[in-house]
TrEMBL record:
Species in which this protein is naturally found: Chryseobacterium antibioticum
PROSITE patterns: HTH_ARSR_2
NCBIfam families in UniProt: HTH_metalloreg
InterPro entries with a match to the protein in the record: ArsR-like_HTH, HTH_ArsR_DNA-bd_dom, HTH_MetalResp_TranReg, WH-like_DNA-bd_sf, WH_DNA-bd_sf
UniProt name for this protein: Winged helix-turn-helix transcriptional regulator
Pfam families: HTH_5
Residues covered by the HTH arsR-type domain: 8-106
Entry keyword set: DNA-binding, Transcription, Transcription regulation
One MF annotation (Gene Ontology) recorded for this entry: DNA-binding transcription factor activity
Lineage of the organism: Bacteria, Pseudomonadati, Bacteroidota, Flavobacteriia, Flavobacteriales
Length: 108
């Protein structure tokens, strides 16, 4: 089978793209902001915070978890979600390098 388009890029480039894609929806950004505000959360709490159906919120949580932005632990019949600090550390390093490079760059 042939190479996929992602095979032409480094693991780090693919990782950044996956994370950024997961953050590319305002509902997911709202979920991240809510989790930061409350520190930890149960799925039902998130559903009460957003103007979306429970199934839609669950799908957004799945995308965030697949991208490594959040973690989820089963507690009884609910899942407790929290921020995955490692993924945000990767983003911080990536965007910090961009800011420093742009700051020092001379452009027309």
């Amino acid at each position: 089978m042939g190479a996929t388009k992602t095979d032409h890029f480094t693991d780090h480039q693919n990782q950044i793209a996956i994370i950024c894609k997961a953050l590319g929806h305002p509902a997911r950004v709202a979920i991240i902001e809510y989790l930061l505000k409350v520190d930890t959360c149960i799925c039902g709490d998130i559903v009460n915070e957003l103007p979306l159906a429970q199934a839609t919120v669950s799908q957004h949580l799945k995308e965030l978890k697949n991208a490594g932005l959040i973690k989820g632990n089963i507690e009884g019949t609910a899942i407790c979600y929290c921020i995955d600090k490692e993924a945000f550390g990767i983003l911080k390093d990536y965007f910090s390098n961009i800011v420093l490079s742009v700051k020092d760059q001379k452009c027309c």
